[in-house]
Each structure stands twice: as structure tokens, then as C-alpha cells.
Write a structure and sequence with these properties.
By secondary structure, this protein is α/β, with parallel strands linked by helices. The chain has 3 helices and 4 strands; from the N terminus they run E-E-H-H-E-H-E.
Length: 115
């Protein structure tokens, strides 16, 4: 490990990176509509971060899917429900960059399902 070869002290780091406007970040979102023509939304977000750890990492997305199925079975829904499955950390940044104005206007409560 190269880091172990470094002497103790402060270092300055330059990260040579650039934004690729053609880049892609996949995510899933699903909107379950209100049965009462409401514009108000409840946001339910969950994330995937370490796909090799399936037992840990799939627990929250599975709960979100079962919650969506249960809400779908209800005869009446006062709110629209927005379910979002995103990559951890960067996914939230990307999702907010694309949907922020709508979310600020319509979301009345938000929940993050975490593993």
C-alpha cells in the first residue's frame, strides 16, 4: 500500500477530474398517484451502495417495494407517493439536481429507508 510509505504530515492533493456532460447515472423512481387528485407527495427514498453485500444492501429496497405494493392495494390514497431507488450519496445529488423544484413545491414529508 503506497499510503503506508508516506511520512506523517499534511499533504496537498490535486484531483484532475472533469464533468462529463454525456455521463449517465441510472436510478429508479415510481410515482403512485393519489386517489383524491392531490398534488401533495410523500417521498420514500432508498439506495444501493455495495451490491456484493446482497443480504444487507437489498433490505431497504425490498421494504420500499413491499410498501409500494401495500399502498397500491389501498382503495384511497390521500397523497401521491414517490419511491426512489438511487446509488448511495451521488444518487441523491443527481436526483435532486433533476427534480428539486418539483420536490420543493409538492413534497410534504420524506423518508429514507436505510439498511
Amino acid at each position: 500500500n503506497e499510503r503506508k510509505k508516506l511520512k506523517k504530515g499534511k499533504y496537498k492533493v490535486y484531483i484532475d477530474a472533469k464533468h462529463d456532460k454525456n455521463g449517465v447515472l441510472d436510478y429508479a423512481d415510481f410515482i403512485l398517484p393519489s386517489t383524491q387528485n392531490s398534488k401533495d407527495e410523500i417521498l420514500i427514498s432508498t439506495y444501493l451502495c455495495h451490491p456484493s453485500m446482497a443480504n444487507n444492501e437489498l433490505s431497504s429496497p425490498v421494504v420500499a417495494i413491499f410498501l409500494a405494493k401495500w399502498l397500491l392495494s389501498l382503495k384511497e390514497r390521500r397523497y401521491n407517493y414517490r419511491f426512489v431507488i438511487i446509488p448511495e450519496t451521488i444518487g441523491s445529488i443527481v436526483y435532486l439536481s433533476k427534480h428539486l423544484e418539483h420536490l420543493k413545491k409538492h413534497v410534504k414529508a420524506g423518508f429514507v429507508l436505510s439498511c
